[in-house]
Fold this sequence. Notes:
Elements: H1 2-9, E1 27-28, E2 42-47, H2 51-57, E3 64-66, E4 70-75, E5 90-92, E6 96-97, E7 103-106, H3 117-128
Amino acid sequence: xxxxxxxxxxxxxxxxxxxxxxxxxxxxxxxxxxxxxxxxxxxxxxxxxxxxxxxxxxxxxxxxxxxxxxxxxxxxxxxxxxxxxxxxxxxxxxxxxxxxxxxxxxxxxxxxxxxxxxxxxxxxxxxxxxxxxxxxxxxxxxxxxx
Length: 146
């Protein structure tokens, strides 16, 4: 009871259980407990036909899940900022994906579950035949010299 009260006071939330009613048929990808996801988690889904090619060309691969139709790559939260992911890729905030029973097919050797988002983005663009595109949200980011 005290633990529950403290979590409410500190503003921490327990993750929703996968497949609960009202979640639009989405489940949260379950990361192995031994991995540290301090940056939060989002997921990038690509058609399964590209999965092996992506995995073999990435310099580092984090957790990857398969739901039959898509392979879902765990990336740090906010990996969609300023990136125009190709239409064939699906971006899922909080790693809540439209899947029934995703299964973990790759777990990294390190303690972090993440695939670096920029190399993943560039590879997804390459395999889908899309030119990489960064959006500029607010103009120049470099302070001008006096």
